[in-house]
Amino acid sequence: MENKLICDALPQCYKYMDLARRAPSKLYVLLSSMISEKRELYDVGGELANNTATDLQAYFSCVVLEQIDICPPMMSVIEGRRKRMKMRIDRVTEQQSFT
User: Fold this and answer.
1) Range of the domain at 7
2) Which pick of 24, 25, 32, 71 has the fewest CB atoms within 10 Å?
């Protein structure tokens, strides 16, 4: 329910901004109405939470971890240089050089 309300409210904000375009008088009306609505929201719900973690948890219905432990990858030790596999031609050339 909460996610649906968020998904419905955001396109409405974009529609209002589209209606205002770049007209300063329309933008002033939009801004003043948003400020008055903010005051009303404070009155209805008390202090509004300005926390990104809680917003993400509400929007995506997931838990945001406070601490993430990332360990470095295991280092593998390779001693010496790896030899490439010899092709048949190399083996034949090598045998001819010994004879």
Assistant:
1) 2-60
2) 71
Contact 20, 30 (CB under 8 A): yes
**Integer Cα distance of 88 and 92 in angstroms:** 6
Residue 93 covered by a domain: no
DSSP state of 47: S
Give percent of the chain above pLDDT 90: 1
Long-range Cβ contact pairs of 44-49 (< 8 A, separation 24 or more): none
> Whole-model pTM?
0.40
Sorted by sequence, the CB contacts under 8 Å of residue 29 that are 6+ apart come out as 20
- Tokens 């995506």 found at: 60
Query: Is the Cβ–Cβ distance between 9 and 1 less than 8 Å?
Result: no
Number of domains in the chain: 1
**Under DSSP, is residue 13 helix (H, G, I), strand (E, B) or coil?**
helix
d(CA 50, CA 28): 25
